Amino acid sequence: MSWLYIGLVAYLLNAVSFIVSKVMLTDLIPDPWVYTFWTNVLGVLVVVLLPFGFFIPPLSVILASFGSGITYVLALIVFNKLLFREEASQVVPLAGGLTPLFVLLLASSFLSEFLSVAELIGFALVVVGGFVVAHEESLRERIRHMGAKLFWGSVVAAFFFGVSQVLMKFVFNNGPFLNGFIWRGFGAILGALLLLIPFKPRKAIFGSFKASNVNAGFIFISGQLAALGSFVLVNYAFSLGPVSLVNALSGVQYAFLFGFIVFLSKRYPKLLKEPLRAGIVRQKIIGIVLIMAGMFALFV
Questions:
Q1: Which of 74, 123, 77, 128 is CA-nearest to residue 103?
Q2: How far apart are CA 159 and CA 95, in angstroms?
Q3: How far apart are CA 53 and CA 168, in angstroms?
Q4: Quick check: 237 and 3 in contact, CB under 8 A?
Q5: What span, in angstroms and rounded, lies between the C-alpha atoms of 161 and 158?
Q6: CA distance 226 to 15
Q7: How far is CA 198 from each of CA 41, 71, 188, 195, 201, rounded to the nearest angstrom?
Q8: Which letter, b or e, does each residue of 242-277 get, where b requires 16 or more Cβ atoms within 10 Å of its Cβ?
Q9: What's the predicted TM-score (pTM) here?
Q10: What is the pLDDT of residue 152?
Q11: Considering only 127-131, 142-146, 230-234, which range has the smallest mean pLDDT?
């Protein structure tokens, strides 16, 4: 059950990286293509791990690693575009709720990973709780507010995130964690390089070399350290436990995100805004209670 605690720490760090991403996309790097490129090209750092457990796995594992990296980049492009438009505590609400469902369906279909009745109940409570925490309005109102383009963008992002995670679980099922992690880094680099193919993104990415500054670099590195820690830990949790349940824990990050934004919005109101009407706070508390109930059903 160690994957539970690893997953919780991972999603805490992921909430931190969400906050930094919102700040970066709002003020410092207001281009989703540029931000996605830099967050993935850093996968080149996996080369420092080559002496500690690298080898060439079967072709299926290599293809799955590359596929995981590329689909993750595709998901991030959509995710960052939505993050650029939405408030940090509400960004990609449908993606956050749908990703665990896609993971559950894909894992059962392609990895023969099935959950017990108790696990399904816990899964549902955590996912629904995360969905409730991430919203200030009903699903119907949220869809109408988002519009068709943002709604389907959220669905697409959730699907690609789900595909990426299930492919990564396949890699971990067929080899040691460290080697799989290295190959997944190669996949991230490949995905980042594919962003250079379209002319406009390529021009913006090359232009970002000249536009960089110390403040942006420091904040970016801070966010990437949190994202890297989250990525390593969540993938390690994938290698230890059911990918469906580990992903379901992502609902917890919305509770973390809400807490961070409530604390930070008072200091940075122009970048981070969070409405705190009594009804919204009550809804957040209900969502957190559902998450706790789901975790109790899963792990007690």
A1: 123
A2: 8
A3: 17
A4: yes
A5: 5
A6: 9
A7: 16, 17, 18, 7, 6
A8: bbbbbbbbbbbbbbbbbebbeebbeeeeebbebeee
A9: 0.80
A10: 79
A11: 142-146
Q: Which burial class, exposed, middle or buried, applies to 87 when counting CB atoms under 10 A from its CB (0-12, 13-18, 19+)?
A: middle
Q: Specify the range with the lowest mean pLDDT, choosing from 57-66, 174-183, 225-234, 260-269.
A: 260-269
Q: Record the tokens describing residue 151, joined without a space.
A: 């709604």
Alpha-carbon distances of 108 from 93, 101, 104, rounded to whole Å: 24, 11, 6
pLDDT more than 90, % of the chain: 21
13-52 pLDDT per residue, tens? 888 887 777 666 566 666 778 878 877 887 777 888 888 8
Higher pLDDT: 200 or 90? It is 200
The pLDDT tens digits of the residues spanning 90-103 come to: 555 667 778 888 99
Residue 22 · residue 88 · CB < 8 Å: yes
* Six-digit token string for 141: 């109102």
Residue spans of the domains in the chain: they are 2-299
Q: Which among 141, 145, 158, 147 is positioned nearest to 94, based on CA atoms?
A: 158
Q: Which of 280, 255, 244, 275 is CA-nearest to residue 131? A: 255
